[in-house]
Design brief:
The protein has about 270 residues and is an alpha/beta fold. The chain has three domains: about 20-105, no CATH class; about 115-210, no CATH class; about 220-265, no CATH class. About 40% of the residues lie in helices and about 15% in strands. It contains ten helices and nine strands. It has helices at about 1-5, 25-40, 55-65, 75-100, 110-115, 120-130, 165-175, 195-205, 240-250, 250-260; strands at about 15-20, 105-110, 130-135, 140, 150-155, 185-190, 210-215, 220-225, 225-230. Strands 3-4-5 form a three-stranded antiparallel beta sheet. A two-stranded parallel ribbon has the order 1-2. Strands 6-7 form a two-stranded parallel ribbon. Helix 2 (about 25-40) packs across helix 3 (about 55-65) and helix 9 crosses helix 10 (about 250-260). The two termini are about 20 Å apart. The relative contact order is 0.11. InterPro entries: Arg-tRNA-ligase (IPR001278), ArgRS_core (IPR035684), Rossmann-like_a/b/a_fold (IPR014729). It comes from marine metagenome. This is Arginyl-tRNA synthetase catalytic core domain-containing protein. It holds the Pfam family tRNA-synt_1d.
C-alpha cells in the first residue's frame, strides 16, 4: 500500500508502533529475567501469565554473554535484563521483516509518550473539553457522546494508564506534533470494536476523524497436514515469520498475503 501511494506522489512514512509500556511489557521483562536466571543455573520461574516460549531461552543466552549472574545484585536488574530482551526481540522482528522485503522508516516507542508528557497532554485536553468523568476511582472517556456503545477507561483506579490512553496520545503525536495529513492504521481484527472509540477520541481532541483510516486484518492460520495450529506467544505455540519464509520462500509468502483482502481469513 505504501509503495503504491509513493508511486502516486504521496509523501509516505511507514511506522511500527512498539508496545514497550504497560502490564504486558512488565510480564515480558519478568519472563526474560526468569530465563536469564535459568541460563545461569539459578531458579527462575516464568510468571503463569507470562511468556513461556522457548524463543526467550535463546534471548537469555544472548543477554548472558554481556550480563553475567555476578550483576544480579544490580539495582533494577529486571529492567536491565528486560530492556536487553526487548532490544534483541525488536532486532529479530526487523530482520525477519527485511527477509520479506518490508522495512519501516520509524520504530515508535509507546514508552516515549510517557517520557515526553504527551500522555498527560491528551488527558488535560479531554478534561478541559469535558470529555473525562471519574467513576469508581477511574477516569473514563465519554465515548458514548461519539456514538460508541459505552464509555471507556483511560486511567485505572490504580492510577495506571490503559492502552487506549496511550493510543490516543500516539495519534495526537502523529496529527498534532508531526502534522500528518492522513494516517492509516493497520489493526488486528480482534480490535474491530475499538474503532468507534478511537474515532471519537480524535474528534474530542480536535482532530478530523475522517483523516484517520483504520484497516483491520484477520489473523493468519497455520495448518500442519490439515491440522490447524493454535498460535500463542505465551504458551510456546508459534511459527515465526522466519520459519515460514524458510519453508515456502519469500515470494510465496508475499503472494499469498496480497491475494487475500485484509478482511479475509488466511
Amino acid at each position: 500500500m505504501s509503495n503504491i501511494m509513493k508511486t502516486a506522489g504521496f509523501d509516505v512514512q511507514k511506522e511500527y508502533y512498539v508496545n514497550d509500556a504497560g502490564s504486558q511489557m512488565s510480564k515480558f521483562f519478568e519472563s526474560v529475567y526468569a530465563r536469564w536466571l535459568q541460563i545461569n543455573n539459578q531458579e527462575g520461574i516464568v510468571p503463569e501469565d507470562g511468556y513461556h516460549g522457548e524463543y526467550l531461552i535463546e534471548t537469555a543466552k544472548t543477554i548472558s554473554k554481556s550480563i553475567g549472574y555476578d550483576q544480579n545484585t544490580q539495582e533494577n536488574i529486571v529492567q536491565v535484563i528486560g530492556n536487553e530482551g526487548l532490544k534483541i526481540t525488536i532486532e529479530k522482528i526487523k530482520d525477519e521483516l527485511a527477509d520479506l522485503g518490508i522495512e519501516f522508516d520509524n520504530w515508535f516507542s509507546e514508552k516515549s509518550l510517557y517520557e515526553n508528557g504527551q500522555y498527560k497532554t491528551i488527558l488535560a485536553i479531554l478534561d478541559k473539553e469535558g470529555h473525562l468523568v471519574v467513576k469508581d476511582g477511574a477516569k473514563w472517556f465519554t465515548s458514548t457522546e461519539f456514538d460508541d456503545s459505552r464509555d471507556n477507561v483511560v486511567v485505572r483506579s490504580s492510577g495506571t494508564a490503559t492502552y487506549f490512553a496511550t493510543d490516543i496520545a500516539y495519534h495526537y503525536n502523529k496529527f498534532k506534533e508531526r502534522e500528518f495529513a492522513l494516517v492509516i492504521d493497520i489493526w488486528g481484527a480482534d480490535h474491530q470494536g475499538h474503532i468507534k472509540r478511537m474515532k471519537g477520541a480524535m474528534q474530542a481532541i480536535g482532530i478530523d476523524p475522517d483523516n484517520l483510516n483504520i484497516i483491520t486484518i484477520q489473523m493468519v492460520s497455520i495448518k500442519n497436514q490439515n491440522e490447524r495450529i493454535k498460535l500463542s506467544t505465551r504458551k510456546n505455540q508459534l511459527v515465526t515469520l522466519k520459519e515460514l519464509i524458510d519453508l515456502v520462500g519469500k515470494d510465496a509468502c508475499r503472494y499469498f498475503f496480497i491475494t487475500r483482502s485484509p478482511e479475509s481469513q488466511m
